[in-house]
Write a structure and sequence with these properties.
- The chain has 1 helix and no strands.
- It is an all-alpha fold and about 70 residues long.
- The mean pLDDT is about 90.
């Protein structure tokens, strides 16, 4: 194989790898944005459930469980 052809093939391979690396990087960045959004939603839900739990605990009288428990 002529030297010029080897260089061209190597350049093409590098270009392909560079494109693939960029696509993977973009994909990872999008996944991190999704993870961050989901983490914020989860924290918001936890806060909401915590507030509801506190509200319910305030409404429930303190009485012992029935004897069959």
């Amino acid at each position: 194989m002529p030297e010029d052809q080897r260089v061209i093939e190597l350049e093409m391979q590098i270009a392909h790898q560079d494109r693939l690396i960029q696509e993977l990087s973009d994909s990872i960045a999008e996944q991190w944005r999704t993870i961050d959004a989901l983490t914020r939603q989860l924290q918001s839900l936890r806060d909401s459930v915590g507030m509801l739990d506190n509200d319910v605990q305030g409404l429930m009288p303190d009485e012992p469980p029935p004897p069959h428990y």
